[in-house]
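Exercise 7.
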Amino acid sequence: MKVVLSILFFVTSLSSFAKGIDLEANMKNMGLAYKNAVQASELSEFNHAIDEFIQLLEKAKTADFKQHQSASIEGIDKVIHKAEDAKKLANKQGILAAKAPLKEIDTLRKKYHELHEPPGFWELLFGK
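Solution. The predicted structure, written as tokens, is:
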């Protein structure tokens, strides 16, 4: 009986692990891909970095957000849209044209990260 329960637990934990992603590691990789896109000096380098960034964003959409699920997905969609705009502009007008949408991505990042920041010390003591 113990063996059956152990196997059942193992299979259940594997299936739940397969569904979730390591959001923290994914976000670090997104940050690196974004940084590479911003610092790219050649179009091929930029396209590779921005494609990787978009792919990681799509992967992040599958994460299990504990709170603000719809707002988080909405934010990711906006960032994907801006990244695609940046890629189109870079391919049509050059890398410098992509700088404005890339800057907007950073603004969106700051806005939507506020949804998931833990409360501060004073906020815990006195509330909002």
